[in-house]
Amino acid sequence: MRRLLQPDRRRPGHGELPPPRGRHHGPPHADLGLGVVPRHRRHHGGSCVMRVNFTVNGRPQEADDVWEGESLLYVLRERLGLPGSKNACEQGECGSCTVRLDGVPVCSCLVAAGQVEGREVVTVEGLADYAKQRSCGTGACGTSPQDSHTGEGTELSPIQQAFIDAGAVQCGFCTPGLLVAADEMLERNPNPSDADIREALSGNLCRCTGYEKIMDAVRLAAARQGEAV
Ligand code: FES
Ligand code: FES
């Protein structure tokens, strides 16, 4: 599939390093506000650590003793107990770690944890609740009785159900990232063309399905979304 060039993503199989950054170039991901780092820094055992406060799936979280080189993906999986976002390449190549940062899909392996201070993150665990809140407007459906933080016991989101119904899940390693990316695309584009779908998912690699069932799943979710309005 053709991949979309975005600041947090690189082409699959793209072997070249990006050009060197100019001396006066701004911080990476400046458009996402990722140049901001938390003030709570201290030195611990010779290295600089910090406390990071941010929101994950609607719940305030505090991660302590975060090393300044630690990725958002590591914090989500290892510190917050949210293993849904997968770690396959840690180089921004596969998209399996895709989460939403202030609504924008990013590769969480490429985002330094310190840069999410004060930001909102949605992971695949929170996708069902996120989609539900969206479909209900601003909380018109009330609060979900299940745990929207970990996703345990929650109903599946429409895109998750569509992936199951279309048989778009095989080993499942790529699935969380694809779900987050597809859900974001359907939020901003309820009637996507095949080209729109391919572009939205171009940063996500799947080694099993050949992508056709994934395309079917997103088409199905879009059709169901259209019927529901
Ligand atoms: S693990 Fe982040 S893009 Fe592959
Ligand atoms: S289902 Fe196995 S990598 Fe996509």
Automatic annotation (TrEMBL):
InterPro entries cross-referenced by the UniProt entry: 2Fe-2S-bd, 2Fe-2S-bd_dom_sf, 2Fe-2S_ferredoxin-like_sf, 2Fe-2S_ferredoxin-type, 2Fe2S_fd_BS, Beta-grasp_dom_sf, Diverse_Oxidoreductases
Signal peptide range: none
Name used for this protein in its record: 4-hydroxybenzoyl-CoA reductase, gamma subunit
Molecular function in Gene Ontology: 2 iron, 2 sulfur cluster binding; metal ion binding; oxidoreductase activity
Keyword Plastid: no
Region named Disordered: 1-34
Record CDD domains: fer2
Ranges annotated as biased composition (Basic and acidic residues): 1-14
